Amino acid sequence: IPLCMVSEFDLPTSIIDRKVRHMKMISPSNREVDIHLENSDEYIGMCRREVMDAFLRERAAGLGATLINGLVQSVDTGKQRQGPYTLSYADFSSGGPTGELKTLEVDLIIGADGANSRIAKAMDAGDYNVAIAFQERIRLPQEEMAYYEDLAEMYVGTDVSPDFYAWVFPKYDHVAVGTGTMQENQSLIKGLQAGIRERASKRLLKGEVIKVEAHPIPEHPRPRRVVGRMALVGDAAGYVTKSSGEGIYFAAKSGRMCAEEIVATSGNGKRIPTEKDLKGYLKKWDRKYGTTYKVLEILQNIFYRNDAAREAFVEMCDDKDVQRLTFDSYLYKRVVIMNPWQQLKLTFLTLGSILRGNALAPQAYKPVDSAVRTEAELQAALEAELSR
After folding, report:
1. Is residue 105 a contact partner of residue 85, using CB atoms and an 8 Å limit?
2. SS3 state of residue 179
3. CA–CA distances in Å: residue 54 to residues 46, 188, 212
4. What pTM did the predictor assign?
5. Between the N and C ends of the chain, which has fewer C-beta atoms within 10 Å?
6. Which domains does the chain have, with CATH numbers?
């Protein structure tokens, strides 16, 4: 999670497993670029979603929200989808395996139910392309885990993703190793995961897979995000950025902005907001973040298209100005304005890196070197594994 989310949403440090201050960018040819946060109070927070989600639920309940452990099965949207709305759901509060069928009538719905949103389907929000993220949680030996204490790795290359990136992120007592790809390449996902496991194999020595996860990721916003008195937020609305694939901050932020619009236009509960009222949230959202999404889409189209471009991307990340601009944009969720000198420098840097990228792109991929063991130690460990 970005630093601004910690302060903006009053998140305690107890839910943050690791504070990452170092990032290693690894190109298709295994060129490694180290990026460090200069300020000691800046970091990228690494959380387990099950921990953070539980905290947010409990806090909401403490502030007066009524929690229902249920699964929505259908939504009756009323005449012309204008409500009132009747949700049919299975209530699992009693702990049974199938749940008790119940209904709930409401005046307004905020759909925060993810990429496969049932609320979006009920309101005919329209389809979108869905990318996929696949990762394995891997427990490592102490030496390897110490290397990832406050460091995350980002790998690029056709072997790990033809249109995105792969990662090794530190978590509580393990690392998350995964990759992502767009909808048109979803059938390749297991081979791409094998690619990142192979490229990072020397740094994942004796790793034990403890959990496997896969998640759909929206590639763009839905055609309709407000219909009647139903509004979509987060992944349900399609608020995931290109280039980084990040969605957690934008999920929380869009939910808050939508709720604030409802409170304001309802006169603190004195009237039911209209569709026009809810669309006020969309106008504010698009005005605040539209440029961010567009810039990141352009960057993905330029630098993720082939290995030569990926080599150029990693080379550019060795520049201190690029690092500062990148981290400021991520940590504080704003498009950083460059001065004329920075713009000129970045233009020439981009052109030069792209030209060199063709020469640097590898003909074949190989594992990146271990950061904590010698080749002799790695070979001995491999022989020990094969002899079992």
Report:
1. yes
2. strand
3. 16, 33, 20
4. 0.91
5. C
6. 10-47+129-219+304-388 (3.30.9.10), 68-126+224-289 (3.50.50.60)
